[in-house]
Design brief:
It is built from 4 helices and 16 strands. Helix 2 runs parallel beside helix 3. The protein has a single domain, classed as Purple Acid Phosphatase, chain A, domain 2 (4-Layer Sandwich). The model has no long low-confidence stretch (mean pLDDT 87). It is α/β, with parallel strands linked by helices.
């Protein structure tokens, strides 16, 4: 984990590609994309199984470790309507029952709009962006929100690091704009089966790369 101050508030960056708001006892998770593998297979694309199960297991472990009272999904919880099969819903319900005391909120993203809201049996509050919490504006799409620092997903940000033209590695990253000039931060994609897109950082931006179990500031 890596603790920083963001717009005057303490936040913790987690190597599992999530953010912990200690004062609100809240985990922020962007772009889980549950059911993405199933969606690909339904279209005839042969991809491995188990990515959604792995994603939920990692999130469950984070809930246990932090003793979170709330989880807010910053959009794209479900990848598509194919994620709503009976088997997938049963697995999600079993997972939800293990964390029944945790409040869960979904800020709708573009994939959620196409997939439709999750079944009510999963007991997720579903809201539109921006969702105000603890001085932050929680969104899916990165956007300026007057009077608040916005935290979002959608971009699946990554940064290239290395020691030369041929020895480069792409790492998922947290990407934060300056609170005065560009008060928007973007979390890495949490899902086990998601792509990454290089960022175009500004001079005043702060970037933190996720390298296995470590988080490192990128200069």
């Amino acid at each position: 984990m890596f603790e920083i101050e963001l717009a005057g508030r303490p936040v913790t960056l987690l190597s599992e590609k999530a953010m912990w708001l200690r004062e609100e006892r809240t985990l922020l998770v962007a772009d889980a994309h549950l059911g993405k593998g199933q969606s690909f297979r339904s279209l005839g694309v042969p991809v491995p199984r188990g990515s959604s199960t792995e994603t939920l297991a990692r999130l469950g472990a984070l809930i246990e470790r932090t003793q979170a009272g709330r989880v807010v999904f910053l959009g794209d919880l479900l990848h598509s309507r194919y994620a709503l099969s009976a088997a997938a819903i049963d697995a999600a319900l079993e997972w939800r029952e293990r964390h029944e005391s945790v409040e869960m909120v979904l800020v709708r993203g573009n994939h959620d709009a196409r997939a439709g809201d999750p079944p009510q049996s999963l007991r997720l509050a579903v809201v539109d962006e921006p969702y105000a919490l603890g001085g932050f504006a929680l969104c899916h799409h990165p956007q300026a929100v007057p009077g608040r620092y916005a935290l979002a997903g959608h971009l699946h940000p990554c940064v290239s690091v290395g020691a030369g033209s041929f020895d480069r590695l792409r790492l998922a990253c947290f990407w934060f704009g300056d609170p005065v000039t560009h008060a928007v931060g973007v979390l890495p994609a949490f899902g086990s089966f998601t792509g990454m897109h290089p960022i175009r950082r500004r001079d005043a931006d702060s970037v933190f790369a996720v390298a296995g179990e470590r988080i490192a500031r990128v200069s």
